[in-house]
Amino acid sequence: METMDTLKLISTFREVAARGGFSRAAVALDVSKANVSKYVSELERQLGTRLLNRSTRTISLTDAGTLLLERSTPLLEMMALTRDELLHRSREPSGRLRITAPHGIGGVELSILLADFMRRYPEVQISLDLSNSVRDMVEEGMDLALRIGATPDPNLIVRKLRPMHMVICAAPGYWEKRGQPAHPDELALHDALTLSLSGLQPTWLFHVDGKPHSVALRSRMDATDSLTLMQMAVKGMGVARLPCLMVKKMLEDGSLQDVLPEFTPEPIWLYAAYTQRRQNSAALKALLAFLEKRWKID
Q1: Is residue 64 a contact partner of residue 72, using CB atoms and an 8 Å limit?
Q2: Among 210, 213, 222, 228, which residue's Cα sits nearest to residue 183?
Q3: Of 82, 130, 165, 181, which one is least surrounded by beta carbons within 10 A?
Q4: In the Cβ-directed half-sphere of 293, how many Cα atoms lie within 13 Å?
Q5: Domains 95-163+269-294 and 166-266 alike in fold
Q6: CB count, 10 Å around CB of 280?
């Protein structure tokens, strides 16, 4: 029989031992006397030994029964504690959440949001994995993935969190040296800092006269990490297309300047991805609701 069946058999045996008989145990368990006898006999069969000495009027424990009664006490106590803790976690946010997010998002606003979330739910612990590669959430035991753009895995549930408005930006010194473009096509003459695209020609998409307009770029540097591109842009090494969320502080303090806002394309979405729709922990449900409220759609 399965493990849970065995635990049920042991629980029935313990009730018989505690009540001193099959009939009283049946009343306590709200099952028939025949079933109680059946469960104890099945447990004896599984263990290959007699647990109870039976007579027409009384029962008593054998040596094996005494040993099982003694050894099963901490096991069932642990199971009861575990059950209570799991029920608590299903109702109250607690336990550890494992989250993966891109470097650029994790290093800016997300850390502030997670700190606020953990203050609100002190029984929740978080493990944050910052990586621009797509993780196998099931294999690596991830509860939640924050991802920018499409999520191709059909086994994941995805939820829109917020639009990621993109900006074309460079350091003021770069613009002074190379001149600011008046039209997206002029970016083809600039040093672009682009995300790695497996050998494909890097392009940026704009809106010109209400229509999509693609500009092929001359990439001076490509990287898998947007944070690296941002740092290179601040150092005056070229022009980058980055999420406004990532560069908001640099735009405010003037270390980066954006151009061509009137040609900005539709934003890329930031998604939350997770593996199950039902029986998610209360902690995950609380985090999703928290992020949706803080990153509500404008």
Answers
A1: no
A2: 213
A3: 82
A4: 9
A5: yes
A6: 17
